[in-house]
Write the structure tokens for this entry.
Amino acid sequence: MFNHLLSLLIWLPIVGAIPVLLAGSGRPGLARWISLLVAVLTFVASLFLLPAYNAADGAMQLTESHVWIASLGVHYGLAVDGISVALILLTTFVTILVIMGAWEVIQDKPHQYMAAMLVLEGLMIGVFCATDALLFYVFFEAMLIPMFILIGIWGGPRRVYATLKFFIYTFLGSIFMLIGLIYLYLKAGTFDLHALAMLPLTMKEQTWLFFAFLIAFAVKVPMVPVHTWLPDAHVEAPTGGSVVLAAVMLKIGGYGFLRFSLPIVPDASEHFAWLIIVLSLIAVVYIGYVALVQDDMKKLVAYSSVAHMGFVTLGIFIAFMLVRDANNLDAAKLGMQGAMVQMISHGFVSGAMFSCIGVMYDRLHTRQIKDYGGLINVMPWFGFFYVLFAMANSGLPGTSGFVGEFMVVLASFSANPWIALFAAFTLIIGAAYTLWMVKRVLWGDITNPHVREMKEINGRETFVLGAFALAVLALGIWPQPLVHLMDASVSQLVQQLAVHKI
Amino acid sequence: MPNLNDIMIMLPEFYLVAAACLLLLLDAWMKPEQRNILHWVSILVVLVGIYLVVAGQPDVAVTAFGGMFVRDAAAEILKVFALLCTALIFVFSRPYMQDRKLFQGEFYTLMIFATIGAMLLVSAGNLVMVYLGLELLTLCSYGLVALNRDSRLSSEAAIKYFVLGALSSGMLLYGMSMVYGATGTLALVQLHGAVVQAGMSNLMVFGLIFMIVGISFKLGVAPFHMWIPDVYQGAPTSVTTFVASTSKIAAFGMAYRLLESGMGGLAGQWQLMLAVLAVVSLAIGNLVAIVQTNLKRLLAYSTISHMGFLLLGLVNAGPEGYAAAMFYAICYALMSTAAFGVILALARAGFECEEIDDFKGLNQRSPWMAFLMMLAMFSLAGVPPLFGFFAKLLVLQAAIDAGMLWLAIVGAVFAIIGLYYYLRVVKVMYFDKPAEGLEVRPQADGFLRTVLSLNALVLLALGLYWGPLLGWCRAAFAG
């Protein structure tokens, strides 16, 4: 019964977007309800992944493969392992909350907004399922179109600049990956990822391919120094766009490293692991300081996303170093798992933070920290959630933010204590910028008279924030199910990494 | 002596010539208010032409009139799409031509004759036939560009087109005469053998260069692109669409016949020439397009860059490369008809709807037209999952396969630069406020809108399922 589950997950939201569009601008209520229905159905369908996927095995499962373009040997190939399952669940979960979050906030053409969101969801799930490099690329690029529209139509005043920058940066990144993939195809005669991983490549080829992949995924993660599109895109995007961007789209960069860079060009990855680690540490430390001086809350969270995603790339490549240099499989697994947990956790935390900022923005139409102050007096419930997410963002034990970072720091300690030292700085800087923001927004006296008129969050907003809060706490207190889900896949991946190509 | 068999092989062409002559008579007899009949009959004529091409398709390549005319799979596919584009243009043009008082029989007859020229060109088996087909195509095009006699821009464009076109025809003829001098034959099949045997001589190389100039002019490859922006902008949009679609398919056919069928033995020589032309085209097309404010001119420069991409396929000089280039030519033609089709559907009397600013806020006024235009723009930009992406994928692959990785990277860089101006069109449609006092709405009837929608949606459909088309293109060059 699970034969076509993955296809269903991809196409249900994409096809579901059509009735949403047809419901039309005349009946925005109907469009909203249909889109929520589609999102909930997709989420329910994604829950079936849990029984269908055998976590003990860890290999690619639920395989679907059809010939797509026979003359090029391109397959419509889908399969998932534990890592993909976790990311797909994150996607379907976040999409529901985004659609609810936009409920009456988006007044202008809600049907187009919801439809774009659903199409985006389907494409993101497609990215996490694709086992054919060309199919992956198609999903990877097609995502840009709905995101472009989301930011461009419903975004802030400088949306056009932000959206063009976003599109061109990411397109720039991926087109070099395309050249790399074509090169691989001409050597291997297939786009199948597994076959590409088996393909012997010389060091010179690997180096070129490594950088082709690096550009593509570094832009997406984003890593320093190609991160500059992210704050712009976040600041201008509507709340839902920011949430999806931070919660899911950034993960695709980290996921790409796992699926492309490490298996296909392992030796070049080993050779240049130091580069990624250095860039990750710069992201963690330097971007943390940049976040400290932001006046705009969205910008602050955007920069903190760059810093947190630095942990993901650090975890992945530290694991790689540990396998290759120290042959320390346990520590490597810890690092890789830490990176994965961090991806999921950051999905929840950043999604929640952007939702909170959205809630404030809907009421006061400003994101400047200085315009707020003393918010806790008028919105105590909101304050409760805000503090919780801020704690998670700064990595407080008991919240999901702590688990992943701790695992990565622990793993990097086995590789090199200095790296661990630098990485651990994030706990201080992260706490500094997040708590300082909370202090200025929530506490103190009400200086702005408009703040006094702000209304407490309503039921819908409470539901959205509450769902995020549950996820953040659940993952923080009991990460075991998530770790277990990905455990076998991560072990397999780590063992694969030990194999040299030259 | 021509026998019945020869005529049967050329049946679609003979039929179209006869039909075009009849249309001319029909037009003379008809009262102006009855001209709608002519419109429908013309569409029917072209559709029957497609049927004849497909139905009479032989299993193997056949020649007629002593090798003058070749009917093989490659020619068949190109003819089908050339005729299809012409039919689409007829459908899209009616309100536009009516509004401008250009709704005349000449339009239909000249278009059909030009299409016949295109068909002869892609089926040419002899240098003389190449020249004949080319002249039939371009002479009719000159007339079509000048169709709007009262427009200064149109007349200027026609003069430019004519002067430069005549010059390039002269160059082509000169090149052909040199090749004839060196090999003593005009038939492409014999030429191929003679070229391989004679190898490279100065005379041959000069002949080749002049022929490449002629081809480059027809394709609109830089630095022989000067006529493109003016003709695209000046000509009535219907005619622009023809120049961008049917005529580009024909130009690819001509390039294939001359370079591969004739001069294939000198591939080592022309590959590098084409590579250089490709880089120049990509650079000029993409960089100059950025500053355009007129959409027709922007699409003109985008054509130049697209022809650069097409050359990436040709430089491969192997069956894969030709298949990729043919795929690209077909793809480009369909994208052009969709993009210009939207312009045609939105234009009305006294309002050309050709400035990019005219498209401001189109999503507010007419979301469906905006969506169709967005599909065309993203496809032209090469964003998956649209058709244009896969065409680019194939030509990049062909270039890498030919050992020109650097050329593919240059192509990729310019694809990113090109992205910017296509995005700008989407940007004004979706993100900008509509201009005050400017009501941009499609004037078109339901039939036109349906066909236009199909044309644009096919860009998405072929993006998702392009296997069969690629299969045909490959099969055409496999043997």
Notes: Chain A touches chain B at residues 67-72, 112, 134, 137-138, 141-142, 144-145, 148-149, 152-153, 159-160, 163-164, 167-168, 171-172, 175-176, 178-179, 182-183, 185-186 (CB under 8 Å). The radius of gyration of chain A is 22 Å.
